[in-house]
Design a protein that fits this description.
single chain, alpha+beta, Homing Intron 3 (I-Ppo) Encoded Endonuclease, Chain A, two-stranded antiparallel ribbon, two-stranded antiparallel sheet, 4 helices, elongated
Length: 124
């Protein structure tokens, strides 16, 4: 086995991917605090779902990479699509809508009487 420093970035990348035929290819390496993979390419930390696209000649540039499978750890290129921020946000909202208050603002919708009851319990 080669020492760590002599492995190519590509070798190190694929050692951190669990490839399954026809399914998500899960990143099993380091992860960010928001649930995405994290990979050191030898120069900087990169997101593996963006890095893998380079193997098939795609550079996402300033665009975003959407997980069509909604699995943040998936690096299967057939599950990824380069899209604008607007398209990615629209798709995310369609699948996981954020609650809106009556005034149209985002945020949790509270049952006011239950909240008042909790506040009175805390103040007792």
């Amino acid at each position: 086995m080669k020492p760590w420093g002599t492995h190519t970035a590509e070798d190190r990348f694929w050692r951190k991917v669990e490839v399954r035929s026809g399914e998500c290819w899960n990143w099993i390496g380091a992860k960010t605090s928001n649930g995405y993979g994290n990979f050191w390419d030898g120069e900087r930390n990169v997101l593996p779902h963006r890095y893998v696209l380079g193997f098939i000649g795609i550079d996402a540039g300033e665009l975003e990479v959407d997980h069509l499978c909604f699995n943040r750890l998936c690096v299967n290129p057939s599950h990824l699509e380069v899209v604008t921020r607007a398209v990615n946000a629209q798709r995310q909202e369609a699948v996981h809508p954020r609650p809106r208050r009556a005034n149209g603002q985002y945020g949790r919708v509270w049952n006011q009487s239950a909240l008042d009851g909790l506040v009175s319990q805390l103040n007792a």
